[in-house]
Design goal:
Helices cover 33% and strands 13% of the residues. It is globular. The protein contains 4 helices and 3 strands; from the N terminus they run αβααββα. The chain has a domain at 17-70.
């Protein structure tokens, strides 16, 4: 049987967030509404990789963080560049 629990040391384990988020959440992180997010996903033009799982879209959070330059936020949500 395959485990669905994130491996130790993963982003989800360290920060407490999922590995993927829904398309609506991904679009909101990028400053767009649901209509634009779904149009871009349907046209394969979303700014980051989008996974299609049946009728549901998901975006890997690591790709979104990289696009927003938040590659290693801590639990407070501050980017690595602002840690000090």
């Amino acid at each position: 049987m395959t485990s669905t629990t994130p491996a130790r040391g993963s982003v989800a384990d360290a920060v407490g967030v999922p590995e993927v988020v829904g398309l609506l959440a991904a679009g909101r992180l990028l400053g767009m509404g649901w209509t634009k997010a779904y149009r871009l996903a349907n046209a394969d033009a979303f700014p980051r990789r989008v996974l299609r799982i049946g009728g549901w879209y998901a975006a890997p959070i690591r790709g979104l963080w990289a696009l927003l330059d938040l590659t290693n936020p801590d639990r407070s949500g501050r980017p690595a560049s602002e840690k000090g």
